[in-house]
Every structure is written in C-alpha cells, then in structure tokens.
Amino acid sequence: MTEVLAGGASNYGKVLRVGETVRRPLRPHSPAVHRLLRHLEDVGFVGAPRFLGVVDGHEVLTFVDGEVLLPPLPSWAFDSSLLASVARLVRAFHDACASFPVLADDGWDQRTPARWSGSVLCHGDLVRSNVVLRDRRPVALIDFDLVAPASRVWEIACALRHWVPLRGEGPEGAAAAPFVTGERLRAFCDAYGLPAAERPDVLDAVLDAEDLQLRLLRQWVAAGHEEYRRIWEAGAPDRIAARVHWVTEHRALLLAAMT
Ligand SMILES: Nc1ncnc2c1ncn2[C@@H]1O[C@H](COP(=O)(O)OP(=O)(O)OP(=O)(O)O)[C@@H](O)[C@H]1O
Ligand SMILES: [Mg+2]
Fold first, then answer.
1. Alpha-carbon gap, residue 13 to 33, rounded angstroms
2. What phi, psi does 190 have (nearest 5°)?
3. pLDDT band at 17; cut points 50, 70, 90
C-alpha cells in the first residue's frame, strides 16, 4: 500500500506512506538528522519516528499511528491539557537531545535569526502538522528537516504561534480574549519549565518568527513553489499581519500573564 500523506507544505505531495513506513525526500543535512533519530532511539525517547534507512533518495522512517491537527480545528484543539502536553513533549525532546554530540559539519538549517542563536538542539518547525496525536494527546514530533541549535525561547515562540494560537482566535472561530491567550502562553511556559527570567523575551521572538515566516514565504513563492503559492493566495500574509498586530496591541497584558 502506497499513499501520499497530506499535512505538510514544503514536501507537498512527496511524503509517502508505504505500509508501516514513511518515505521523505532527502536533504543535504539528512545524515545529521538520521544520527539524531538514532540517538533519540538509543536514549529511549519514544516521541519521534525511528530511522530505518535510505531508499531511492528518500529517508525511510516508521509511520507513527495517529493524526495531525489540520483545519478546520475541532474544539478540543484548544484544550489547555493538550497545550500543556505538547509543551512537555517539546521539553522531553530537548532533554533527550542534550546528550547528542553536535558536529561542526552537521550542516543544520541556518534560518534562525542571530539574536536567537543558542546551544539547545531545537526541532525548528513545531507547527500542528508536525505533531502526531493519539487520543487527543501528542505522541511524537515528526519532520526534523529544520532541526538546528538555537535558544529554547526561539523554539517555544515558534510553537506558541501555532499552538496557543496567537491571533486572538478561539474554538469555532470565536475570538479569544487577550486574558485567555495570556493564560495559554503561561500554561505552555509552565508545562515546558521555562524559567521566569527568559519569559520576557518570548514575544520578541514571536514577532521575529512572524517576520521570518513572511520573508521565507515570499522567497518560496518567487522560486515557484506551488503549495506555498496556494498558501500565500489563501491569505497567509494577512494572517501573519493580524498576529503581529494582535500581539503588539496586547503585548503588556500578555507579558504580565506570562511572567
Ligand atoms: N513518521 C510519520 N508518521 C506518521 N505520519 C507522518 C510521518 N511523517 C509524516 N507524516 C504525515 O505526513 C504529513 C506530511 O509530512 P511532513 O511533515 O514530513 O511533510 P513536509 O511537507 O516536509 O512538512 P512541512 O511543510 O512541515 O515541512 C504530516 O503532517 C503527517 O500527517
Ligand atoms: Mg511537516
């Protein structure tokens, strides 16, 4: 049985399920990602697919049974318990990576802004479609193409944009009060265990992440990537602008709730 898996954008139409395995196109730094996946297996971290080998220019990974959240979101996508369990999985991933030997020539993705550089090996792409859920709980992170050393604040900010989320939206399209969003930011930081001293930086990192996303989208569209063109035309720049506006407008309240 071979099936094209939906959910992603960068490898749109190119991620295949073959039986109980997944095949994804290789990237220049895939060998480093494969070393990392082997490391995660060795240290007993179960929240990632296993690396099985390389076939025809593709990495072969275990298929993780479950689902990813795609729009339209069910109301339980906004449960605080889901948010907290995603934060705990991200923390467990960072902790499991701490003993991984990063090498000078690993060639990790380079897109992290210099301000948010650091030594925590980060997933780098914690969108909803890169977290597999089972029974409404996250069981695995997938898609390690953007792994890179960075600061944990950067990783958390990138995850918060999608998982809180940060445009003042709530279940079933209703608006969420800034107070509620502030509580959700805090819940994520608490469950992750982000020290209070680092929390004031999180919203700056969110705004930098929005800026980066807009610039990258523009580049990909200009380079002729069809799926990103569709995402662009479906209003991605407006959604980014709305998040920037909303976070900037409610910044003081959000910060107070988080710290
Ligand atoms: N190992 C796996 N186990 C289960 N499902 C998977 C696995 N890998 C990928 N998928 C499914 O396939 C979808 C697309 O895969 P993937 O995230 O690798 O694509 P992508 O185009 O590289 O994504 P992105 O746009 O985030 O870079 C995921 O959202 C998920 O539904
Ligand atoms: Mg993906």
1. 21
2. -65, -50
3. very high
Distance 74 CA to ligand 2 centre (A): 20
Pick from 142, 225, 227 the residue to mutate for probing ligand 1's pocket: most ligand atoms within 8 Å of its CB: 142
Would you say the pTM of this structure is higher than 0.70? yes
- CA angle at 221 for the pair 144 and 242, rounded to the nearest 5°: 80
pLDDT band for position 175 (cuts 50, 70, 90):
confident
Helix axes 80-97, 30-42, angle to 10 degrees: 100
Which atom of ligand 1 has the smallest separation from the CA of 70? 29
> What is the phi/psi pair of residue 56, to 5°?
50, 50
User: Percentage of the chain surpassing pLDDT 70?
Assistant: 100
Identify each DSSP E strand in the chain by its residue range.
Answer: 2-4, 16-18, 21-25, 51-55, 58-62, 120-122, 131-134, 137-141, 148-150
**Atom 13, ligand 1: residue with shortest CA distance:** 7
Ligand 1, residues 2, 4, 15: which to mutate, most atoms within 8 A of Cβ? Answer: 15
